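Good morning,

Both structures are done.
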Amino acid sequence: MCRFVAYLGEPLYLEELIAKPRHSLMRQSLRAGQAKTVTNGDGFGIGWYGERPEPAVYREVMPAWSDDNLMALASTLRAHLFFAHVRAATAGGIARSNCHPFRHGRWMFMHNGQIGGFAQLRRTLESRLPDELYAARRGATDSELLFLLALVHIDTGMPAAEAMLQVVDDICCLMQAQGIAAPLRFAAALSDGQQLHAFRLASDDSPPTLYRRNCAQGTVIASEPLADDEAGWSPLPAGAVVSLRL
């Protein structure tokens, strides 16, 4: 399982969440406390919104703890909305194109979890993409495909959170129809630069962990609390959908 952090609020240096805390995302990449996979060393990525509507991303296949460029960027980048993700690969190989977060236009997305029986479902799901979004697919992960399928609905005018829920429901129905017993698990964050949506869902009773903390500067959504001695971390209940706006 992967680990991630999302932030929305007053502009903040990325290092304040991904490097400085006692249990920062950098530390979780080496030793996560609440994940089945302790080490998340199959790549990492950060994404942030600056002065343009489209997000910027920096992704690499090396472990987060070994990339000096990540530390340099995190200490100088300041943003009101940013994502950070460390990967433990489930679907798709270790490649930059498979690292999160994913972006398309003004949208950005990251995910922790998997689609059960994805290899069996992949062709059917990819056939649901229009040509433009199929051509935009760069990697081989179920996560990127979930993102692009949500954009199909968003492009028709469906609200973003509703679009993501529709995709998850559709896939669960397809899994059931094909007799797939392996679960769909889905902790994710989606943003257009103005709103941040977070999800904690599963087709069984074991969704990936996800927490929320409101602080003086804004709101943090994280796979795990970033400091054991820091008050205010609340676990999101199973089935939770959180939508935040600037």
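Second structure follows.
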Amino acid sequence: MDNSLSNIAREAVSHWGIELAELELLPLTENIAFCVTGVAGQRYVLRLHRPGYHSFVELTSEHQWTHALRNAAIDVPVPIKTILGSHYCKVEVHGEVRYGGMLEWVDGVSMASLLQGDLAGESGGKMFAQIGELLAKIHNQATAWKPTKNFSRHAFNVDGFFGESPFWGRFWESRLTNKKQREWLGQARDQIGDVLTEYGECAEIYSLIHADLHPGNVIVNDDQLHIIDFDDSGFGWHQYDLAVALFDYRDNSQFSLLQDSLFEGYRKHRHLTDESISYVPLFLVIRALVSIGWFSDRPEHDGRADIKGLYDYGVSALDQALAACR
């Protein structure tokens, strides 16, 4: 581990008064994260949040929502307060100020790892049905819940996806694409934006959403399912949540089974109309396009980016997706 990162993490942990036994750097994601183990064996997750991604108010709003979700019997992260009673401290990482936050550690394995090689079996459909149930419960809580006046999170609406300053970057100007690709991406931006503007944002289909609830963000411990990583959570269409759950399996031969199972699980707890389902293919395309923007704004992830694959999927799927919405 980078000694400077280790020292910064130790400085952050000191704000919680934890007597540290072990510090483990976790795989790189949106934030720098560590598994923190105290001398008594207790474990936590320390997150050093990416600078410029969320304001302090937006970070505390995330906790406000997850607290409300826990009150609705949905298993989500539990934050730990510092010695001074705050949920965050400030640390400097390579010249940038970051907010550090601590969460309770949850034992288990990711659903994504359990799905490897078993998508065709009964367990694959069962796990996607469970994700559908989780999303329905989240959407039920979100549509009924009234945040406080100081609540602030970003929006994955037309402006948040396709406006002048979209949340995940101007994908139609991506440095990772060529001129021909950028021309098509610009056209797709306009076409999809028009469809979503007409679709609207009524409460039945638009509320707070997790926005990144793929199987890798569900931790399984026996029969208990724990949802992690609310970093991207904000206001958006419910179908985007459904599309995100499916996106990594879009080219899999079992996609139809997984999709049907997801919808079946969702319908156990929340109404899902055929019209709403007809928009899911469009949100799958949207996920591909905004992922191009996400990778383009994060050079540290360039090596993991299949930009051509994302682009080719958008080109192959857009016309049919638009037709399904009309």
